[in-house]
Amino acid sequence: MKKNVLYPGTFDPITFGHIDLIKKALKIVDTVIVAVSETRNKNYLFDIDERLSIVKNALYKDLKIKPTKVKVISFNSLTTQLCKKMNSKIILRGLRAVSDFEYEFQLAGMNRKLDSSIETMFLMSDLENQIISSNFVKEIIQLRGDIKKFTTKSTIKALKDKYE
Question: What pLDDT, on a 0 to 100 scale, did the predictor assign at position 100?
Answer without folding.
Answer: 79
